[in-house]
Design goal:
The protein has 95 residues and is mainly beta. It has one helix spanning 5-11, and strands at 23-27, 39-40, 44-47, 50-52, 63-64, 75-82, 88-94. The strands form 3 sheets. A 3-stranded antiparallel sheet has the order 1-6-7, with no helix packed on it. Strands 2-5 form a two-stranded antiparallel ribbon.
Length: 95
């Protein structure tokens, strides 16, 4: 998921959306997810070659995901970023 100048401009200034467009990943089969500890990682390109990677800032600390009810069979794992007063990542499983 990328939020850059081009994405911000495409969202439009007049109609501010509540969320960024979702990104979907395949949810692995039961056997493949043994020991799986998914986390969200943030990489920030500040300007030109200057970047912030994991643990370089409080904004780039990896966030472990809590999965309360994983699907048994094949599914898509959808991620989106909520904008507004309480910004943050959201995730859900879709069949």
């Amino acid at each position: 998921m990328v939020l850059d100048k081009a994405m911000a401009q495409s969202l439009g200034a007049a109609a501010t959306p509540e969320r960024l467009p979702p990104v979907a990943l395949p949810w692995p089969e039961q056997q493949q997810r043994q020991g799986l500890r998914p986390a969200l990682l943030t990489h920030i390109r500040v300007f030109g070659p200057h970047t912030l990677g994991c643990y370089d800032s409080s904004l780039t600390i990896p966030e472990r995901l809590k999965i309360t009810a994983p699907p048994e069979g094949p599914a898509r794992w959808e991620f989106t970023y909520r904008l507004g007063r309480r910004p943050g990542f959201e995730h859900r499983f879709a069949e």
